[in-house]
Amino acid sequence: MTELSPEEALARIAYLLERGRAESYKVRAFRRASAAVAQLGPKRVGELHNSGRLADIPGVGETTAKVISEALSGQTPAYLSELENRSVPETSAEAQRIRSLLRGDCHSHSDWSDGGSPVEVMARAAAALGHDYLAMTDHSPRLTVAHGLDAARLGRQLDLVEELNARLAPLRILTGIEVDILEDGSLDQDESLLGRLDVVVASVHSKLRMEAPAMTRRMIKAIENPHTDILGHCTGRIIVGRGRKPSTFDVEKVFAACARTGTAVEINSRPERRDPPPELLQAAVGAGCYVSIDTDAHAPGQLEWIGLGAEQAAESSVPDERIINTWDLDRFLDWTAGHAL
Fold first, then answer.
1. Using N-to-C axis directions, what is the helix angle for 6-19 and 24-40, rounded to 10°?
2. Strand ranges inside the chain, DSSP E
3. What is the pLDDT of residues 271-327, one digit of tens each?
4. Would you tell me how many other CB atoms lie within 10 Å of the CB of residue 14?
5. Cα–Cα distance measured from residue 250 to residue 10, given in angstroms and rounded to the nearest whole number
6. What is the set of domains in the chain, with CATH numbers?
7. What CA–CA distances, in Å, run from 171 to 15, 156, 323?
8. How far is CA 55 from CA 30, 37, 105, 256, in A?
9. Cα-atom radius of gyration of the chain, to the nearest Å?
């Protein structure tokens, strides 16, 4: 590994903890320590190191001080090596091939809603992974627990994205939203504002136990909305911990609506979701649906989960040409613009 500065080593540990779904307080501790070290500068940090007073730095504790000390000594910090060597789920050769085709990620969150990092930090992490584009799809206002964006806040985020795109080219941050599908199937944001966005991911977050006929009508109405580009995590299931059972709906009717309208079905790559289940993903492929392989990342390290989604696509033999984020930016934006007509 290339020798890292203390702040780089601390930031890398935070990234790897995110990738491994560690508790958020651990991630914040390493990010705070990284920021504190960067603010002090290498000369002052070196002085504190030489005098054995690294723990005097606000936000630096025993563990982070050890990382700083080892980095200053020219070593790879032991904790960093441990995290780097922790097994990441292996993917098949076919999944790796699909991953190599992916040009971007169409579902991510920042600290504007329930993500943990600023838009710019998420964007730079996406660029480091080789993405050409990243859709910033923070939540809509109905999801108050996630600090969803009302029209005014979303408008301010659009201004920020415009400014960042001027600086971060060639990466393109796509404007977007993960909009709640309300109980009647309408979308939880102003229609004129939805029309200004590059990407609209529509997802069910409430009343997940609706009876199947009502849920089917609800989902189809949202799919038929001309602003909807992607149907997010379609069953809402959780497969870790106590878990959450998938919603029930008429699979044939919902995926027929997706195929008819050209709405993509999301492969949500989050390890606790892996949604849709294999049999539903195969049904979507059989119905002729487009597919979008997304991470639903809430932190930079989670953007690496896109390989897990590629594995899901490989297992269900999703044709390359049906995966919308294998397309280049111009083709992708032409496609999303068609949904807003």
1. 160
2. 104-105, 133-136, 172-180, 199-203, 230-231, 264-268, 291-294
3. 999 999 999 999 999 999 999 999 999 999 999 999 999 999 999 999 999 999 999
4. 26
5. 48
6. 6-85 (1.10.150), 93-339 (3.20.20.140)
7. 20, 20, 20
8. 13, 11, 39, 60
9. 21
